[in-house]
Amino acid sequence: MNATAEREVLTYELFGTAVRELAQQIVDSGYEPDIVLAVARGGLGLAMGLGYALDVKNLSAVNVEFYTGVDQRLEMPVMLPPTPQAVDLSGLRVLIVDDVADTGHTLVSVQEFCADHVAEARSAVVYGKPHTVVKADYVWRRTDRWIDFPWSSQPPLVDRRGGLAH
C-alpha cells in the first residue's frame, strides 16, 4: 500500500463542500455565533468560509503551535502572540474553528482561553479523529488517517528557517 492510499485527501473542491455542510449543521442546530475564532493556520480558511455562509463578519484568530511535522508535535500546544483580548470576546457566542481535532489538545487550550469570558463557545472542525480528548460540536468527517489538506500537501516554496526550499 502506498503512502497516499493511507491518507485522507481533501481537495479544494471538497473543502468547499465541507464548509457548506458544516455551516448547514450549525444553522440546523440553531446556534448563531457572534464571532468566528480561527485556530491559525489550519482553521483560517474554514473561518472565512463559515463567516460568509453564516453571515458573520466578526472573525478573529489565535495562533496555536502544536504540530512540527507529520506525526511530530510539541508536548503541549502553545498559544502564540498576538491573542485576542479577552474583553473583546466578553459575552459573545463564539464558534471556534480548526481544520482537525486530532489529539484535541489545541481545541481544549482555545476553549479554556475563552471559557471565563464568553457567553457560549462551540467548535467546528473539518475532521475529527477517534482519539481526540474533546469532541467538536460540528464535524464534517471522521477519520483515523493522516490528512493531506490542499494547502499543506506540498512543501513550502520557502523555508523560513534557512532560505529557499528545494
Tell me about this structure.
This protein is an alpha/beta fold. The chain has a single domain, classed as Rossmann fold, CATH 3.40.50.2020. Helices cover 26% and strands 36% of the residues. The protein contains four helices and ten strands; from the N terminus they run βαβαββαβαβββββ. The strands form three sheets. Strands 4-3-2-5-6-7 form a six-stranded mixed sheet, sandwiched between helices. α1 crosses α2. The radius of gyration is 16 Å and the shape is globular.
Q: Largest sheet, if any?
A: 6 strands, mixed
CATH-defined topology:
Rossmann fold
- Total strand segments: 10
Mean pLDDT: 86
Q: What structural class results from the helix and strand content?
A: alpha/beta
Computed over alpha carbons, the radius of gyration is 16 Å
Known CATH architecture: 3-Layer(aba) Sandwich
The poorly predicted ranges are none
Counting structural domains, the number is 1
The number of helices is 4
Helix coverage percent of residues? 25-40%
* Beta-strand residue fraction: 35-45%
Tell me the distance between the termini: 27 Å
Side by side, the strands of the main sheet go 4-3-2-5-6-7
CATH class: Alpha Beta
Reading the helices and strands in chain order gives: EHEHEEHEHEEEEE
General shape: globular
